[in-house]
């Protein structure tokens, strides 16, 4: 159902973003792999090409408007339009609230929230000109749980939920769908750095489903929200968390 759709996926050199890029390409979308990790982005594109898919690597930093503008321009030059934007790039370092410096607070928001603002402002006019589009924002279940050591992260991801709703209202009448996913604990390479064996057990105890979620679990919901099966939805926040938070 993503056949011939053009999708920009941020943070697609690794983890959830990479799995999403591979899945979209498998479903015949044309994928723009955007990441600050140029080598990683090129690797994702190689994997897509090897599987017979079509993709473009764009080295860009969510903190750098000029590099994001160049990536959107390259996407338009190569594929002619943008149908979907998956706002996935993000960082999640842990730190006690009282030790978070202003520079660390600013960096978190610059990447996780303002970066999303920057790329969305650049891509949205192309969707509007084409008569519609789908934006999928990746927030976090920590927005609901508010775990310790993640105050600056949780604040940035709360902003993502709020921005999702505001954009859904502002652009709904112009056929722009904006939805949000709040992943639970997803077993990516980055996540492994932060998670102890004890936390692994806590996740499984807290979840209804007793398995560790993988990037593909989130990628599949991204595909649903970027494709026509979600045409009746906008402004929503979907938990992909194995039933950790029930509300
Ligand atoms: N893994 C989890 O458990 C989990 C849970 C909830 C939410 N999330 C969110 O999902 C998203 C992806 O998480 P992940 O675990 O796959 O992370 P990851 O670290 O595996 O991948 C993130 C990718 O984003 C890129 N990136 C980081 N900063 C960037 C920047 N400034 N500019 C461009 N690219 C940048 C990295 O290079 C990397 O390729 C993040 O927004 C994260 O907050 C993850």
If you had to describe this structure to a student in words, what would you say it looks like?
This protein is an alpha/beta fold and 247 residues long. It has a single domain (6-240), classed as Rossmann fold (3-Layer(aba) Sandwich). The chain has helices at 15-26, 38-50, 65-79, 102-130, 142-145, 151-171, 189-194, 197-206, 215-226; strands at 6-10, 30-35, 54-59, 84-87, 133-138, 176-183, 237-240. Strands 3-2-1-4-5-6-7 form a seven-stranded parallel β-sheet, sandwiched between helices. Helix 1 (15-26) crosses helix 9 (215-226) and helix 4 (102-130) runs parallel beside helix 6 (151-171). The chain is globular. The chain starts with 5 loop residues before the first strand and ends in a 7-residue tail after the last strand. The structure holds nicotinamide-adenine-dinucleotide. Nicotinamide-adenine-dinucleotide (NAD) binds next to helix 1 and helix 7.
């Amino acid at each position: 159902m993503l056949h011939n759709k053009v999708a920009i996926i941020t943070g697609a050199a690794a983890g959830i973003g990479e799995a999403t890029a591979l899945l979209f390409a498998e479903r015949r979308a044309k994928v723009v792999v955007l990441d600050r990790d140029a080598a990683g982005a090129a690797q994702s594109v190689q994997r897509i090409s090897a599987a017979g898919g079509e993709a473009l690597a764009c080295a860009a930093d969510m903190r750098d408007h000029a590099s994001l503008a160049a990536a959107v321009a390259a996407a338009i030059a190569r594929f002619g339009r943008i149908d979907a934007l998956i706002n996935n790039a993000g960082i999640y370092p842990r730190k006690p609230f009282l030790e978070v410096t202003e520079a660390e607070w600013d960096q978190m928001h610059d990447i996780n929230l303002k970066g999303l603002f920057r790329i969305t402002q650049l891509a949205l006019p192309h969707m509007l000109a084409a008569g519609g589009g789908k934006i999928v924002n990746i927030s976090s279940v920590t927005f609901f749980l508010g775990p310790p050591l993640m105050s600056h992260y949780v604040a940035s991801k709360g902003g993502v939920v709020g921005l999702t709703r505001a954009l859904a209202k502002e652009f709904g009448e112009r056929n722009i769908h904006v939805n949000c996913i709040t992943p639970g604990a997803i077993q990516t390479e980055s996540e492994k750095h932060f998670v102890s064996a004890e936390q692994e057990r806590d996740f499984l105890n807290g979840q209804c489903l007793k398995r560790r979620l993988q990037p593909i679990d989130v990628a599949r919901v991204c595909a649903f929200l970027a494709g026509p099966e979600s045409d009746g939805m906008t402004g929503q926040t979907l938990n992909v968390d194995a039933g950790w938070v029930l509300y």
